[in-house]
Write a structure and sequence with these properties.
With 56 residues, the protein is an alpha+beta fold. Helices cover 27% and strands 14% of the residues. A hairpin with a 4-residue loop joins strand 1 and strand 2.
Length: 56
C-alpha cells in the first residue's frame, strides 16, 4: 500500500518513531481494512491554499 501520509491532513510526523502516522481513531476492523486496501479512504489532501481559493 503506497500512501503519502506526509501529504494528508490526517497525518502527523511522530519524532519518537521517525515516521508519519495517522490521527484517525480507527478500531481494529477499520485499521485492518485500511491496511489491506490499495488507497486510504480517510486521505485528505493537505492543500494549505484551499481556504484562500474559497475566499477569492
Amino acid at each position: 500500500m503506497d500512501m503519502a501520509c506526509e501529504q494528508c491532513l490526517n497525518g502527523f510526523y511522530d519524532e519518537e518513531f521517525d515516521e508519519y502516522a495517522c490521527t484517525m481513531l480507527l478500531d481494529e476492523d477499520e485499521f485492518l481494512r485500511v491496511m489491506q486496501s490499495e488507497t486510504c479512504p480517510y486521505f485528505r489532501a493537505g492543500d494549505e491554499y484551499s481556504i484562500v481559493r474559497k475566499q477569492n
